[in-house]
Design brief:
Layout (H helix, E strand, L loop, with lengths): L1 H6 L1 H22 L6 H15 L4 H13 L1 H6 L2 H6 L1 H6 L1 H25 L4 H7 L6 H10 L4 H25 L5 H23 L1 H29 L1
């Protein structure tokens, strides 16, 4: 009976929702964004799977349905973009240059730091697309002949750190402009960072959502040339 339940898609969905709700509860109790629901939920699920020796494939029977909903959730970001279209058009050149510079910095920082610390070329290539959303990053990793699993982990870690610390780091740096904050968070920390940017304000959320798409396109186009020059 228990084995049948574990293999059911309902199991993965239920476990994911419960873990995330625990994360939200802890964040609301602590009133701190450092207590990130995504990080807590991921940690709880990993601990549970390892403790009870539940195969990841069984969990993912339901988890994949949660992943499927990322598509509609991302499309929903078009709403704040539509509301702020005049602002986007007014500052279109500054926005584009900001995302371009952020994308280049994201690629260079990951690849160069990995190389400096002694990582081999394949690992450096796997880490280079860490700042774009997971589906794009994995395809880039495949094209560069990196390790997609490592790329996926790097993307998630980058997003969680960006969501936890992004606005605070920008505040310390004296960056208070809402457009600049949204662009910085979205370019550096993709979807997870955008979830935090939305909480910061509508403009920040709109700009961060815009940055996800543009950063993905820009990174896909320029990353082969950059890694060829530096690795």
């Amino acid at each position: 009976m228990i084995k049948e339940i574990i293999k059911s898609p309902v199991f993965g969905v239920t476990v994911t929702l419960i873990a995330f709700e625990i994360g939200l509860f802890l964040q609301n109790r602590t009133k701190s964004y450092v207590v990130n629901p995504m990080l807590i939920a991921t940690s709880l699920i990993i601990i549970m799977l390892l403790t009870f020796k539940i195969p990841y494939q069984n969990y993912n029977e339901g988890g994949k349905y949660i992943s499927f909903l990322l598509g509609p959730a991302t499309v929903a970001l078009a709403i704040p973009l539509y509301k702020n279209i005049d602002l986007i058009l007014k500052y279109r050149m500054a926005i584009f240059v900001g995302i371009l510079c952020g994308s280049v910095a994201g690629i260079l920082s990951a690849a160069l730091i990995a190389s400096f610390l002694g990582a081999d070329k394949t690992i450096a290539l796997s880490l280079a697309p860490k700042s774009v959303t997971t589906p794009i990053a994995i395809e880039i990793s495949n094209i560069l002949k990196g390790y997609p699993s490592l790329t996926s982990a790097a993307v998630i870690i980058t997003g969680i750190i960006g969501a936890m610390m992004g606005p605070e780091v920008l505040k310390i740096a004296g960056i208070n402009n809402k457009i600049a904050k949204g662009i910085a968070i979205g370019t550096a920390a993709h979807g997870l960072g955008t979830s935090r940017a939305v909480q910061e304000g509508e403009i920040e959320g709109a700009m961060s959502g815009l940055a996800i798409g543009l950063a993905g396109i820009i990174t896909s186009l320029i990353i082969p040339f950059i890694v060829k020059m530096i690795l």
